[in-house]
């Protein structure tokens, strides 16, 4: 993976969001940064061009947002992808997640859905804020049971919840994810349809314009021809009048000559 | 026949050796880096020694904020050229967490023993970046930065360069600077003013120029090929001309 990074084609860190977070450290900018990291990792994992330190940075962002289980897995993924980072990651883990030092599970399947995971984690926080009864017991960091049950992705759900509550919460989260997916798919389809309609309209308009232009051109040509005919006619009349005048002049001269001769006689 | 062939080979070898040894070469400048071969590199928090204006007006606070953003950008863009060269560099958030656990001051880190970074964290070298000065006129922006790379194995100095970088822009008939399209795109993307964008782009190019000159990391290709490529001197001035090209003044006469 490092070799891929060395080849020059790698996905860099989201500098814009990091700079924004460092300038204005708010929950919104933190979430934007985490999402940007998730997107960058997602893209890099697909192309196998991962920037060193990306998993660890994303883990730090998630830990700051309170998603300790996911953050722990990101740190473990960093150690797995870049073994030379072990010492550094363990130090950061000890600082941020002191009670998860023994957790070394790196479920790399997560990395393919990491963006989804970030959004889900964010939604689950919001969902928990709406459920004060459940939120009141969120104090555990032991998520081993959850990882076994839901290996794809999971958030820190307390072990003290009853089985039904856990199931309900998971179902709710899955339904929310499905709804989001559906909403995104709908919006994409609507956008596509709008694009197609706009293209059709534009085509019809173009044809109309073309016809109008053609009509206008024909009318102009007709007018021009008419004008030309009139001009030619006027010219002919002028020429005929000229010839007539000449003839009359010649006849006048002839008559004058005759008169002179008669006077002479 | 054999003697002639041997003679030819010897002549070719001599010519190659002579070509490899002439002038200012990377092997000479980065000899310690080649000897130490660090693979992991930690960028210590940036030491900003530049002066800020005393805040009396809104303009002063905007100027100070602009320098702060540019300084952060200097730190953020330092890792990219190193990663491209094949080093493992922790990201900015991880580095900030590591720095928060550090009890020594930056000055102590810069000069004292840092072998614990190798023993405990596995970082083989530590890069210290020090901003010395910011300066600007109506159409030029200047920054002076000191880069120092120390080995975490034995604490020795691997590289030390000080650069004075200037970015100049052309002016229109009123004398106002004409920004480049890249700078305008940067300002639009980051939502900052053009002065900040100029400074941010300047430090980005500077990092690329200085840190991109380091030898490739152990695992990168071309580690041995580039040994005899010319390197930058200890101190040099870098000028970014109005057309966006980079000009380096290396000799004392030029400076």
Describe the SSE topology.
The complex is a heterodimer of chains A (265) and B (255).
Chain A: H1 2-6, H2 15-23, H3 27-47, H4 54-65, H5 68-81, H6 86-96, H7 109-112, H8 114-130, H9 132-135, H10 144-149, H11 163-264
Helix pairs in contact in A: 2-3, 3-4, 3-8, 4-5, 5-6
Chain B: H1 2-21, H2 26-29, H3 31-36, E1 41-43, E2 47-48, H4 58-76, H5 79-84, H6 92-100, H7 106-111, H8 116-119, E3 125-136, E4 140-151, E5 157-168, H9 181-190, H10 194-211, E6 235-240, E7 246-249
Parallel strand pairs in B: 1-3, 2-3, 5-6
Antiparallel strand pairs in B: 3-4, 4-5, 6-7
Task: For this entry, give a set of tags.
heterodimer, A: about 260 residues, mainly alpha, 11 helices, about 75% helix, disordered N terminus, B: about 260 residues, alpha/beta, Rossmann fold, 7-stranded mixed sheet, about 20% strand, globular
Structure described in brief:
The complex is a heterodimer of chains A (265) and B (255). Chain A is mostly helical. Helices cover 77% and strands 0% of the residues of chain A.
Describe what you observe in this structure:
The complex is a heterodimer of chains A (265) and B (255). Chain A is mainly alpha-helical and 265 residues long. Chain A is built from 11 helices and no strands. Chain A has a domain of 160 residues. By secondary structure, chain B is of the alpha/beta class. Chain B has a single domain, classed as Rossmann fold. Chain B is 40% helix and 20% strand. Chain B contains 10 helices and 7 strands. In chain B, helix 4 packs parallel to helix 10 and helix 9 packs across helix 10. Chains A and B meet through helix 1, helix 2, helix 4 and helix 6 of A and helix 4, helix 5 and helix 6 of B.
């Amino acid at each position: 993976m490092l070799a891929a990074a060395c080849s020059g084609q790698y996905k860099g860190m989201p500098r814009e969001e990091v700079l924004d977070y460092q300038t204005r450290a708010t929950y919104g900018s933190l979430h934007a940064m985490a999402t940007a990291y998730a997107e960058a990792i997602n893209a890099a994992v697909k192309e196998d061009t991962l920037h060193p330190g990306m998993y660890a940075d994303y883990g730090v962002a998630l830990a700051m947002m309170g998603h300790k289980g996911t953050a722990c897995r990101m740190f473990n993924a960093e150690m797995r992808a870049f073994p030379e980072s072990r010492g550094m990651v363990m130090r950061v883990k000890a600082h941020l997640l002191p009670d998860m030092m023994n957790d070394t599970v790196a479920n790399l399947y997560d990395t393919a859905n990491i963006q989804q995971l970030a959004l889900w984690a964010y939604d689950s926080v919001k969902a928990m804020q709406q459920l004060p009864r459940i939120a009141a017991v969120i104090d555990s960091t032991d998520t081993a049971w959850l990882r076994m049950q839901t290996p794809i992705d999971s958030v820190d759900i307390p072990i003290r919840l009853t089985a039904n509550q856990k199931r309900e919460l998971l179902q709710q989260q899955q339904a929310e994810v499905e709804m989001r997916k559906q909403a995104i798919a709908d919006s994409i389809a609507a956008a596509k349809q709008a694009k197609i309609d706009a293209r059709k309209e534009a085509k019809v308009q173009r044809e109309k314009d073309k016809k109008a232009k053609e009509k206008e051109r024909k009318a102009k040509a007709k007018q021009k021809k008419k004008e030309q005919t009139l001009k030619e006619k006027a010219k002919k009349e002028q020429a005929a009048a000229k010839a007539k005048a000449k003839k009359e002049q010649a006849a006048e001269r002839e008559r004058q000559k005759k008169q002179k001769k008669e006077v002479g006689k | 026949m054999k003697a002639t062939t041997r003679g030819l080979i010897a002549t070719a070898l001599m010519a190659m050796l002579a070509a490899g040894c002439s002038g200012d070469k990377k092997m000479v400048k980065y000899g310690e880096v080649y000897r130490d071969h660090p693979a992991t590199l930690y960028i210590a928090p940036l030491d900003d020694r530049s002066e800020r204006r005393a805040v009396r007006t809104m303009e002063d606070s905007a100027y100070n904020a602009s320098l702060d953003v540019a300084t952060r950008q200097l730190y953020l863009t330092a890792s990219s050229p190193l990663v491209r060269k094949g080093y493992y560099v922790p990201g900015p958030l991880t580095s900030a967490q590591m720095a928060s656990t550090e009890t020594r001051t930056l000055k102590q880190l810069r000069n004292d023993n840092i072998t614990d970074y190798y023993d405990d964290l596995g970082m083989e070298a530590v890069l210290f970046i020090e901003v010395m000065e910011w300066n600007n006129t109506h159409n030029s922006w200047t920054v002076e930065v000191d880069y120092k790379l120390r080995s975490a194995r034995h604490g020795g100095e691997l590289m030390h360069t000080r650069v004075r970088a200037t970015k100049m822009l052309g002016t229109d008939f009123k004398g106002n600077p004409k920004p480049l399209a890249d700078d305008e795109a940067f300002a639009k993307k980051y939502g900052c003013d053009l002065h900040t964008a100029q400074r941010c782009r300047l430090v980005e190019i500077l990092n690329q120029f200085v840190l991109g000159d380091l030898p490739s990391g152990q695992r990168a290709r071309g580690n041995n090929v580039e040994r005899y490529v010319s390197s930058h001197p200890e101190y040099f001035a870098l000028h970014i001309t109005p057309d966006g090209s980079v000009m380096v003044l290396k000799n004392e006469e030029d400076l």
